[in-house]
Design goal:
Elements lengths: L5 E5 L2 E5 L9 H85 L5 H12 L41 H11 E8 L5 E3 L2 H12 L3 E14 L2 E13 L2 H7 L1 H4 L2 H7 L3 E12 L5 E8 L1 H9 L2 H11 L19 H5 L1
Parallel strand pairs: 3-8
Antiparallel strand pairs: 1-2, 3-4, 5-6, 6-7, 7-8
Length: 341
């Protein structure tokens, strides 16, 4: 190394110092200089660290603030979107309710039309029970035939003998009735008393056939009416029967013990006019059934006077359709005496 210059190397830092007189670079002066240089480098390092720290802190705070702002904005957007969805769902609900009401009205109109499903159900009901309730037949005789004198159909005008045809089993008839009738069906008989269930109707279909020597059922008209929000099918029909010994025994016990009345009725043909009303629920099942029969007018023709008609009909009240769950109501105002008054 030249005596006119000095090269200093400390901790990787190179420095070239200009020409210095050799006499000044003695060991006594070199040590303080190196110490001063070390202090200077240390101060520079500390100053850089402080500067770096000062520059990082504001950046971190700014980033945290920005994230908070974005989170609040996202929450606000979510709340707005949720409110929009709720309003849209409410509007859709109103539209669907209106559509349901419209379709229900259309369905009611279709079902209640002369060719609607309710009329078809009632017509099929009458067709299946045209012969009354079929008697129980031994096993293997499901194909038994009948030639009973029965006429069914709107506008049927005269009595005829049905051609031999397969008679439905009682169970098949019951299954059909249970399929169109509500389990809690309310049945109102001809004197205004109410019973519950299908069994009273089945009893009637069976007894009217068994207790007369001939039976003719005719449907004259079918129409649909709206009664307090319920669709109802009203029918006007006639039942033409011929009085037999069983008729006197079970229907008119007063005539069975009276020779004069017995002579008037036995073998006579009686035509009962009746009006049936079937009330349907929204599900299409019959929930209420009422029957109104003109016994007075029917019996006047063969008997001839109201006193004898009254003697026949008063005991007949006790044969009104009933079930074990709804016994006869004694003292009901819907008696023949009241109806005649």
């Amino acid at each position: 190394m030249s005596s006119s210059s000095l090269v200093l190397r400390r901790d990787g830092l190179d420095g070239i110092v200009g020409s210095v007189p050799k006499k000044l670079m003695t060991p006594a002066t070199a040590a303080p200089r190196r110490q001063k240089e070390d202090e200077t480098r240390l101060a520079v390092r500390k100053g850089g660290a402080k500067s770096a720290g000062a520059s990082t802190s504001p950046t971190t705070k700014k980033l945290s603030t920005e994230r908070s702002r974005q989170c609040r904005q996202r929450q606000k957007n979510y709340a707005l979107n949720l409110e929009d969805s709720v309003r849209a769902l409410r509007a859709e609900l109103v539209d669907m309710q209106g559509l349901r009401a419209l379709r229900r009205e259309q369905a009611m109109h279709t079902r209640g039309s002369p060719t609607g499903s309710l009329v078809r159900k009632v017509s099929e009901y009458y067709n299946l029970f045209a012969h009354g309730l079929a008697p129980e037949t031994p096993a293997g005789s499901a194909g038994a035939t009948t030639s009973s004198s029965v006429s069914v159909g709107v506008g049927a005008s005269r009595k005829r003998s049905l051609p031999s045809s397969r008679v439905l089993s009682p169970q098949e008839q019951r299954d059909f009735m249970y399929s169109i009738m509500d389990p809690q069906l309310e049945v109102y008989d001809w004197v205004g008393r109410m019973t519950v269930g299908c069994q009273p109707l089945l009893n009637c279909w069976e007894s009217w056939v068994l207790w007369h020597s001939s039976y003719l059922f005719q449907v004259e008209s079918i129409r649909v009416v709206d009664v307090q929000g319920l669709l109802a099918v009203c029918t006007n029909s006639t039942i033409t029967v011929t009085v037999s010994e069983k008729t006197l025994e079970f229907f008119f016990p007063a005539a069975a013990a009276d020779a004069r009345l017995r002579a008037k009725l036995l073998g006579q043909e009686i035509v009962y006019s009746l009006r049936d009303t079937f009330f349907f629920s929204e599900s299409g099942r019959v929930v209420k059934y009422t029957v109104d029969m003109d016994f007075i007018g029917a019996l006047m023709a063969p008997v001839g006077n109201y006193a004898d008609v009254l003697a026949l009909v008063v005991p007949f009240n006790d044969l009104a359709i009933q079930s074990p769950s709804a016994p006869l109501v004694k003292g009901s105002r819907h008696t023949v005496e009241y109806l005649l008054s």
